[in-house]
Amino acid sequence: MKTLKQLKYSEAGFRAFYHNFFLVPLTGKLKMVFAGYPEYEQAEYALTYGYIDHTAGMTLEVMAAAIRREDGKGVRLEDMNLRLASKIRIGVAKDKDCYILDDKLTKCAHEWYREHIERLSDYDVGPEIEETRKMKFLDECRSPEYPDDVLVYLVPDAVAEVMARIQMGQPMTAELPGV
Fold it and tell me: How far apart are CA 13 and CA 16, in angstroms?
């Protein structure tokens, strides 16, 4: 699609997808996840909204069908189905060529799908965890699919080194299994 920017999660990282709308190509099993949405039979893409489920990782919430316009310049966004909640975990779509909506479409999508986005407030985290998501210096230690999980090295004595993945926001104790 000529007017939309193409991105892959595996190359762009979680910040590009976090709280943004993306068109994800409907191929294979993804098409089955989409059944029940208006116009899903004709859809080539799912309109999704990215958020982080603190325990399940980066997730794309399916909002609606997106059908390519006949002139090839953009898509037509269909109605949502509030009776369904379909999620795409990023591991399934991380290497797919997705399209981020431009500013004009994003503004419209926020208005059109506001009620659906509001349902995702259950996944909101406190300001401390939100702050850690902004810390770019942690990025090389983050799990690609679970951005709130970071790899840490623990050195309990001068001889041994232990690697552990911890979830940001979890209380740290002096006792860790295996240490």
Answer: 6
